[in-house]
Design goal:
127 residues; alpha+beta; 2 domains; three-stranded antiparallel sheet; 3 strands; flat
């Protein structure tokens, strides 16, 4: 798609907190390294062009017939040199809707709350 002036318009990836969490880690390590004198400039990077994203959007709250949309996207920034047809690796770019997505959303919710409270073994809960 293009705008009336000819500017390419690409579908936007889902806006999730997942990339923010992944990018925050190298930022924190960079700040620590610079404060402790191990580096003068940032040495770690987290590129959206080499990062995937996942999003689960709830569309119902019933435990037995609720539904949610589950989406994954890789890479977040389209790379038309590596994936000329779509800009993304279709093996890792998917979308599904159903009850399984609802259960995953529920598990992620409780996992996030568990981690946010810094309960025992909170560090092993993935981002």
């Amino acid at each position: 798609m293009t705008s009336p002036k000819g500017t390419p318009i690409f579908p936007a990836p889902p806006r999730t907190g997942m990339p923010s969490g992944v990018m925050a880690r190298p930022v924190a390590f960079n700040i620590t390294d610079m404060m402790q004198g191990r580096a003068e400039t940032p040495t770690r990077r987290a590129s959206l062009a080499k990062m995937g994203a996942a999003c689960i959007a709830s569309a119902g709250s019933n435990l037995l017939n609720g539904t949610a949309v589950a989406m994954t996207l890789y890479p977040i920034i389209p790379d038309f040199q590596t994936y000329p047809e779509t800009g993304r690796m279709l093996r890792y770019t998917t979308a599904e809707i159903g009850l399984a997505g609802h259960w995953i959303k529920r598990l992620l919710h409780y996992g996030f709350i568990y981690k946010a409270k810094a309960n025992p073994f909170w560090r092993v809960v993935p981002e």
